[in-house]
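Reminder to self: tokens first, then the designed residues, so the page reads top to bottom the way the pipeline ran.
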């Protein structure tokens, strides 16, 4: 009996050995799974990515180094199947060109797959106070359900989707993060656009490998639309995080959130940079190394700074600042500055064609870099 059992165990282990050997040889010869994964895959495993301010300068610099590495592989057409079989859920409450396509292309290039989720085609994920029977579903539930199917949840929510209550879009993303057991990625809310900030810093570092002390002008520029605070806020945060001399220029009423300015001041002190505010676009441009003129909305027309949402009032107010436009004459005042904009730029309002299409423009580099930085973060948190 004992002999028989041993014999069975022996035969069983022999069988397992040959199966393992066969699988290994198949992988070695043909499967991307056979590639040894770089050490950065999974380096920040499970972490949410909601705001660059949640990460140290070293961590952000590390992400950017990997982004440059992934860009080189992309340019050389070297495969990077570092996330085989991984699934990214993308929930867009707002439209997108760059964000959607760079995330979707990025996860595919890493060997994974993206699901595009339109909130109106699922039961719209909602905070408890916004729930409508059989039309919405609690974010706490959606987050836990998706956590059982895949490997990260990416969300974009601002403006009408967050009812123009400033901070509510970020609250939605925080609610997802609170309940998800997989990483949550902020694809832009009403306060922050962290992947844009990474892409922008990658473009800056490509021009100025050490950006410390370089003057970055984040300026209001007029648009006929109502845009969120996310990009200027993330820009001043990442600029000060890298010790830049940040100048924020805007007309009266376009102040950023006090908490963001406080955080930027702390970063400036810590990393040897500066942050100053002016109400004059022309003065701001003088001696600038980089200019980032773009629109955002005047807070005083929206809760919690106003008792109700007044989009018409905000539009009428900003119509008084149509002269805040980036022109060659303004660029002449700079230190041969590079022009930046996250896109989509409102041509003829925020900037004239001659600047955005000119030799000093980094507009398309910024757009491209979205792909590389997102791939770097996905590798680090989803691996
Ligand atoms: N900059 C940016 O987020 O672009 P999209 O709105 O096209 O995604």
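Designed residues (383 positions):
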């Amino acid at each position: 009996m004992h002999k028989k059992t041993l014999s069975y165990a022996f035969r069983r282990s022999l069988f397992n050995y040959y199966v393992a050997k066969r699988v290994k040889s198949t992988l070695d010869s043909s499967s991307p799974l056979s590639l040894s994964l770089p050490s950065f895959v999974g380096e920040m495993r499970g972490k949410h990515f909601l705001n660059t301010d949640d990460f140290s300068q070293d961590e952000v610099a590390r992400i950017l180094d990997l982004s440059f590495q992934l860009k080189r592989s992309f340019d050389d057409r070297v495969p990077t199947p570092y996330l085989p079989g991984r699934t990214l859920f993308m929930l867009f409450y707002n439209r997108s060109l760059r964000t959607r396509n760079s995330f979707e292309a990025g996860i595919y290039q890493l060997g994974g797959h993206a699901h595009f989720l339109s909130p109106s085609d699922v039961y719209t994920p909602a905070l408890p106070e916004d729930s409508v029977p059989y039309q919405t579903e609690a974010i706490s539930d959606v987050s836990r359900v998706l956590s059982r199917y895949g490997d990260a949840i990416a969300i974009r929510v601002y403006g009408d989707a967050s009812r123009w209550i400033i901070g509510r879009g970020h609250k939605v993303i925080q609610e997802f993060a609170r309940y998800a057991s997989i990483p949550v990625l902020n694809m832009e809310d009403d306060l922050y656009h962290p992947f844009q900030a990474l892409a922008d810093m990658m473009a800056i570092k490509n021009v100025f490998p050490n950006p410390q002390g370089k003057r970055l002008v984040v300026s209001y520029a007029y648009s006929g639309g109502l845009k969120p605070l996310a990009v200027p806020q993330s820009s001043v945060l990442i600029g000060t995080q890298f010790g830049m001399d940040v100048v924020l220029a805007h007309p009266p009423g376009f102040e950023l959130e006090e908490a963001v300015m406080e955080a930027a001041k702390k970063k400036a002190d810590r990393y040897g940079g500066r942050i100053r505010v002016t109400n004059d676009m022309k003065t701001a441009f003088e001696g600038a190394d980089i200019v980032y003129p773009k629109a955002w909305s005047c807070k005083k027309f929206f809760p919690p700074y106003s008792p109700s949402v007044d989009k018409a009032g905000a539009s009428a107010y900003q119509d008084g600042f149509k002269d805040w436009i980036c022109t060659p004459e303004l660029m002449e005042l700079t230190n041969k500055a590079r022009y930046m904009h996250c896109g989509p730029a409102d041509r003829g309002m925020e900037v004239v064609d001659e600047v955005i299409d000119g030799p000093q423009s980094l507009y398309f580099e910024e757009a491209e870099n979205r792909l590389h930085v997102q791939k770097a973060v996905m590798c680090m948190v989803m691996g």
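Residues 96-99, 188, 196, 342-344 surround phosphoric acid mono(formamide)ester (CB under 6 Å).
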